[in-house]
User: What shape does this take?
Amino acid sequence: MEASNNNNRSLLSKIATNDGHGEKSPYFDGWKAYDANPFHPQRNPDGVIQMGLAENQLSFDLIQEWIEANPNASICTREGVSGFKETAIFQDYHGLPEFRTAVANFMNQVRGNRVKFDPDRIVMSGGATGAHETLAFCLADPGEAFLVPTPYYPAFDRDLRWRTGVNLLPVVCESSDNFKITKEALETAYEKANLANVKVKGVLITNPSNPLGTFLDRETLKDVVNFINDKSIHLVCDEIYAGTVTTGDEFVSIAEVIKDDPACNLDLIHLVYSLSKDMGFPGFRVGIVYSYNDHVVSIARKMSSFGLVSTQTQHMLASMLSDDKFVENFISKSRIRLACRHDMFTRGLAQVGIGSLESNAGLFIWMDLRRFLKEPTFESEMTFWRIIINEIKLNVSPGQSFHCSEPGWFRVCFANMDDETTMVALWRIKSFVRKNRNLEIKTKKQFWQNNQHLRLSSRRLDDILTPHRMSPHSPLASPLVRAQN
Amino acid sequence: MLSAKVTCNSHGQDSSYFLGWEEYEKNPYDEVKNPNGIIQMGLAENQLSFDLLESWLENNPQPSAFKNHNDQSIFKELALFQDYHGLPAFKNALVNFMSEIRGNTVSFDPNNLVLTAGATSANETLIFCLANPGDAFLLPTPYYPGFDRDLKWRTGAEIVPIHCSSLNGFRITKSALEEAYKQAEKQNLKVKGVLVTNPSNPLGTSLSLHELDLLVNFISLKNIHLISDEIYSGTVFSSPCFSSIMEVLKNRNLMNTEISKRVHIVYSLSKDLGLPGFRIGAIYSNDELVVSAATKMSSFGLVSSQTQYLLSEILSDKKFTKTYLSENRKRLKERHEMMVKGLQKCGIRCLQSNSGLFCWVDMRDLLSSNTFEGEIELWKKIVYEVGLNISPGSSCHCSEPGWFRVCFANMTEETLVVAMQRVKSFVDSMVKKSIQSRHQQLLSRNSRRSKSLPKWVFELSFHQREVAADER
Assistant: This one.
């Protein structure tokens, strides 16, 4: 059996038998714990709450309402069936023109119409997952590398490397800088690659960031643009969380930066987009590659044959996203709900002295649990993470799975559950902290001395509210949580 | 600045297969708006049975409205469902459908099925799983032109042809398999497997039991894989009935053996149900390692959950699938006959076929020279003068010039009639030109019969020659 298994493995490709899919990472143990014992408010109130899934579940009611009111958007309803045949046979990889126009329109509106995307540059892909792989295939050959600021989304290791043979090299960002991307960090990473004889083909940034939940300021974006132009390498901007920025007008897309930069070589600029986060549609597999490089658009379009969006879905979304009134309403309501949930969660954490990186985007927060680690090591982080899963019964994601350079940070998702579950999660955290004060190794004063520059939340430990008294619609203003010295 | 994949042309889009499409797009036929336009006969689509699907949709409004049988909205659940294992209800319905197509002689385990965005993605994914860059797969010629892109472009794998000949109806022979394997070795390519399309595109024939046995023996001997692309399995409209590779394994008691683990099937709903836009493809494998790796890879091209749900409802309706499969076959058979007879009237033969959405047409007698240049010359005439976009055999890597794939199921009956009339006019005019030219030669030389006339002139029916003579 053993011999035949080995024989089988040798009959398969290297790609099929290596671990490039990334699923052996301990990151998935939390998921397994959740799958084995999933929380349900009535059926399994002691189960594991899933807080490792960056999903946006807060605004489905708005979409459902729209679907009920627009039955002809589905080519399969009585009202829409006359369009069934044309849609079902349409497999042109350019995509339905009305779909591309509607997506471009949505992307514009998410950015407050400060930019105008060209529908002819919109290329479909199998989700953002497919988009990233396609761009890696287009921009780099096996053995070449992309620089990626840490911490970054774990599945990039699979999406950009697995079948393409491309490498990812970290651009180390530190908590002392609020994890900002600095010119020095970029240069250091580039030099390191050179010394190792690895050819760097580009930089990949996620803006807003997963897992940080922050978005880049204009200066940093300009620095990055200058860096890539200087080295004549590509810039891939993953903006899949653009619509989750609660302070919408402040978000700066790469599209805006290059508009004002005539010196930028546009052939180097590419965007990845998706409807999975902003609209909460991961199941519909709507990924977009948007490139300012004509050749890349052309080839990515040919590659999109491997992951086109179902025309049934294209048709529905073309209808939905060209409804300007709906889109405007959706974007603004979604932002408000995300802001409320973010606020509810950060305040709840603050009540037990747990801080997080100041953020106003994404579907998660970057929690600072450094003071709970026995030692400032990744082993300690892993140990504490298992406690969180097994005792507190929350699946959160440890910073090391995001290649964070410092132990003690955890990503916790807040938008993939209802209010009630959020309360339960907060209550569990607070109970745990209360019971385990001895876990907090450093004193508060020492902690603040070490982290003066870091903007975190804080409240007195004793100021604990039960879940039932906490109101998500608290009039206590801003979702931003500031340090109190 | 860009990768080698961008700057090479392994995407295959410079091939004539695609150039004919471009010409069609510039000047597409429309019965009313553009009756002199080019008729698209290069697209293997099944447009014959949409009415059956449309009436199902009208009678079953719930799945399209994201509702379940209790009329409750499941929009949220579907919108969030991105599990690469696929919707269980859909996979169950799909394997049952696959079984039904094979007359329930074999059953499929939904856990061995991997969903992909179309057969395009399924084929590429399988190659990623089975071959390293530089490894080769053997493919019988002629084969679907898109394989050059799907199997080779991003994977770095190679294709080595198994040459099939018109002398035996393009059947796969043992010696052809051996020869292809040797060729690969000569080129220092490691052969990882054989890929066949059954029923065949472009031939429109299903593999015989003998061919299937040969293949099983061959892969067993060489310890390599067999991929059977069975996306046309539901289009078999006449005998011999379809035999899937799985049936052969079962009949030879090879299920649950090492050999069965090296046999993989590709399926899709693009041809049988006529839904290419919905991107529904699947890989079926008995090897859990392949299933596991392919499942993870499917992340790059999952099937939209909205589409999975709709199809799970359609395919679970057994009454519908039974009616659909039999009615669809009947209509394909009728349409096929219409084309074969229409071409016969022009003195043009087709390879005898029992499946597919096209005929493999023998136009060797119309070539000015028995070369691929002659084939392309004829093809250009057919596209630009006759106004039909058909696919030249060279784009399918056929080893003999003069064969063309002509599709019949992607148009109305009226359009097919127009297409056949155009072919007839074209052939008649070629006869006329040829006879005029012969007359010219006779006038300018002695009365000795010139051997330079193409032989099809003499093969035309007596009636036609008389008509042609009268018109002169």
Notes: The first strand of chain B starts at residue 39 and ends at 40.
